[in-house]
Amino acid sequence: MQLHPYLFFNGRCDEALAFYGKALDAEIVDLMRYKDAPAPADAGQGSSSAACPSMAGRLEKVMHATVRIGDTVLFASDGNEDGGPQFRGFGITIEAAGQAEARRFFDALADGGQVTMPLGPTFFAESFGMVADRYGVLWLIIVHAR
């Protein structure tokens, strides 16, 4: 079994994926936009926007994306656009290969975000820090003690 976090960016998914591409070397494996979805069978001919007029403004938004960061897969979407993303009660941990990689990831994620614990040595790790990125996702960066 595998677990894959699914992040909903409420209309900012393209922006977030570009940010994670630069910050974390994230690779988009698959991406589907709302316009790519087939029209419901009872809608007759035409695009999915014909079947649902409220969808017309969202056709270019991301319905689903599969993103690879290192050996991990995340899913992402523009999803529910009501009220903005609500990333609370969880964080995503990155086990960096060393100090330089940890610093690079941490600083990139902190750009436009909020550091909640500066990256530095702790009693349980060579280096550890926490940062909420510009989208509100909490990242925990760790370099395990060797």
Written description of the protein model:
With 146 residues, the chain is α/β, with parallel strands linked by helices. The chain folds into two domains: 1-84, 2,3-Dihydroxybiphenyl 1,2-Dioxygenase, domain 1; 87-146, Signal recognition particle alu RNA binding heterodimer, srp9/1, CATH 3.30.720.110. The chain is 19% helix and 34% strand. It contains three helices and eight strands; from the N terminus they run βαβαβββαβββ. The chain has helices spanning 13-24, 48-51, 99-110; strands spanning 6-8, 27-33, 62-69, 72-77, 92-95, 114-120, 125-132, 138-144. The strands form two sheets. It has a four-stranded mixed β-sheet, with helices on one face. The two termini are 29 Å apart.
Which secondary structure elements does this structure contain, and how are they paired or packed?
Blueprint: E1 6-8, H1 13-24, E2 27-33, H2 48-51, E3 62-69, E4 72-77, E5 92-95, H3 99-110, E6 114-120, E7 125-132, E8 138-144
Parallel strand pairs: 1-4, 5-8
Antiparallel strand pairs: 2-3, 3-4, 6-7, 7-8
Helix pairs in contact: 1-3
Q: Name the helicity range.
A: 10-25%
Distance between the termini: 29 Å
Arrangement of strands in the largest sheet? 1-4-3-2
| Domain count | 2
Can you tell me the CATH class of the largest domain? Alpha Beta
Report the C-alpha radius of gyration, rounded: 18 Å
Shape, per Cα inertia axes: elongated
What is the CATH homologous superfamily assignment of the largest domain?
A: 2,3-Dihydroxybiphenyl 1,2-Dioxygenase, domain 1
Number of alpha- plus pi-helical segments:
3
